[in-house]
Amino acid sequence: MRRITLDAAGLPLSALLAVPAGTPRATVVALHGGGMNAGYFDGQADPGLSLLTLGARLGYTVLALDRPGYGASAERLPEGQTLAEQAASLSAALHGFTAGHPYGAGLLLLAHSYGGKLALTAAARSVHDRLLGLDISGCGHRYDVTPEELPDEGAHGSRRLNWGPLGLYPPETFTAAASVVAGMPVRERVEAARWPEEFPAVAADVRVPVRLTFAEFEAWWRHDEEAVTELRAHLAAPRVVVDRLPGAGHNISLGWAARAYHLRALGFLEECLQSAAGGVPDASGTPPEPRAAAV
């Protein structure tokens, strides 16, 4: 794994990059939530938690981005960007990345929380012509909190909402968390309250498979059967999968359940690859040959 910086139409976006031995089957683009950074996907509290390590071992390139307003772009964007602006920046960065790096049969956006809003918005705006699907955790369409509980300028929301029972995480998580926590830009905080109203229009333009995961102790979002049915109805995606992850809180990729979630997400990517195998070539122009990834 190494740190790199991507050019998003003149805006520097920092990232963590892990590559497999040989040609990647596909590339996972990981988008963190509000008040975090790309290190969220490289959990250091236990060796088995890192999406970057696991993905590369199983044959995928994993690119975990610091979203606009975080990392290298924070100084240039002290107030952050709107979701539409972030989608444009992400598109520019990914086109630059795929022009210079092997990326396999296409891209999967794997996103958490606020990053899930970006993934949906980016997909609706055709972020990349080789987008295979979206795998989103910790993001729904109807909040299960009051407006007063949404993050303010000095906080990232309550511990209960963000973490759930602390026993769901390795003890070292809360020591290492300082390296993955970041300030949430003001434009994100303002736009967060509008997501329930903006979601239907965004969802109507999403045309790739979508998988949504809700943790057992997810408290930010409604994910009862009524809410899930309504959410599905808004999405124009050809396939929508809704999964439940036991023994997990909102910050799934930092908890003991991280490996299970990451394996399920990569399994969904394999399904997307199989669906695309008949018509989506790899970066060399050759249609991919479906084969099982080693686990």
List the helices and strands and how they pair.
Layout: E1 2-8, E2 11-18, E3 27-31, H1 51-57, E4 61-65, H2 83-100, E5 107-112, H3 114-124, E6 131-137, H4 159-163, H5 173-176, H6 186-192, H7 195-203, E7 210-215, H8 225-234, E8 240-245, H9 258-276
Parallel strand pairs: 3-4, 3-5, 5-6, 6-7, 7-8
Antiparallel strand pairs: 1-2, 2-4
Helix pairs in contact: 2-3, 3-7
Radius of gyration: 17 Å
Mean pLDDT: 91
Low-pLDDT stretches: 279-295
N/C terminus separation: 20 Å
Shape designation: globular
Strand order of the largest sheet: 1-2-4-3-5-6-7-8
The helix/strand order is: EEEHEHEHEHHHHEHEH
Number of strands: 8
Structural class: alpha/beta
The major sheet is characterized as: 8 strands, mixed
Structure commentary:
This protein is an alpha/beta fold and 295 residues long. The chain has 9 helices and 8 strands. The chain has an 8-stranded mixed β-sheet with strand order 1-2-4-3-5-6-7-8, with helices on both faces. The chain is globular, with a radius of gyration of 17 Å. The relative contact order is 0.17. The model is unreliable at 279-295 (pLDDT under 50).
Descriptive tags:
9 helices, alpha/beta, globular, 295 residues, disordered C terminus, single chain, 8 strands, 17% strand, eight-stranded mixed sheet
